[in-house]
Amino acid sequence: MNDADSQTKHSNSAWIRFDRNELAGSFGDIGTDLPLIVAMIPAAGLNGSTVFIVFGLLQILTGILYGVPMPMQPLKAMAVLVITQKIAGDVLFGAGLAIAVIMLGLSLTGALTWLARAIPRCVVRGIQFGLGLKLASMALKDYVPSLGTSGYVLAMVCFIIVVLLWGNRRVPAALLVILLGLLYASLATIDWSSVHLAHSINLPTLNIPTWDAIWTGLIVLALPQIPLSLSNSVIATEQTLHDLFPQRAIGVRKIGITYAVANFFASLLGGIPVCHGCGGLAGHYAFGARTGGSVVIYGTMYLLLGLLLGSTVDVLVAAYPRPVLGVILLFEAVVLMLLVRDMADEKKKFTIVLLVGAIAFGIKQGFLIGLLIGTAIWYFWQWRERRENTSEITSEGNL
After folding, report:
1. Tens of pLDDT, residues 235-269
2. Which residues form a coiled coil (predicted)?
3. pTM of the model
């Protein structure tokens, strides 16, 4: 670890800071968020301007509230279902309200805190490792090859830039990579004739989902999302916060409450359901962010795009080269996977890490299945060890 990283990790006194490193870090999660948001807007028939404005506001509020680079992200399981099944916007909003109520109940009753204590750390590390594998796979299979030969060349240049400037606090790699992507988009992929400023500011309006939409959203979208949210958005995020910012005491109860409150507002104002996530935290941190300033900057970008571009925002954003996003996503994945190093010296724990990670990566609903199997194996091993110790003590007593 270099001196700059050591100082920022262990003596981070600033709550909000705005500098080139916070600016660079603010792009650390864009590779995860942007493609999902752009794909969800037409699939669910959403207002692109409203989605961007609400998403940006939630980022800004989160950055101010937490003071660490912990952004909001689209709910991934919901996003995939909406994109693949073309689920209507009112059902999506109903699902956001449903999952907000569930998470608020778990948080206020203490059930969320109990779950966080009951699930072994090695299992959480496995969840983080599995998410890292998923992100890396997405980057290499879906993003980098998306533009053919030119995309591979662009991704290689971006990769080299990040490797050469990794950890450089004076010339943040993410800024150069993002600027390179903007240059490529302006020359090759943006249809400038379809891009124009909004004629008027389109502010979000209150929209209360019907009971039918809430019930359908609960069954179709919220229930499949809950396992991933519990494992990655809350428990793994709390562990990642402890890893990267040990001086900040942020528990799962607070994370669960802000998760719930954010989804109440998002659903009522026409935004997409959101969550915290260890991947987003790792992404911002990997590219230099150390305070909530990066999240405020990130949110301001979405807010301004929504306010200024209106209905054309999704056209402009969709033109950004996916290979660049893939490189950012890949390094976000690397930071997550490297967190398992503290388990490498303990064979049993590391075995569970690898097992849970493999299940989370390779099986449908793998985050939930991996969490349950890993936790069961851990407690079985603990029980067997106690039983063996008791037998040895009894044998010695008989002698």
Report:
1. 889 988 988 898 887 889 999 999 999 999 999 99
2. none
3. 0.76
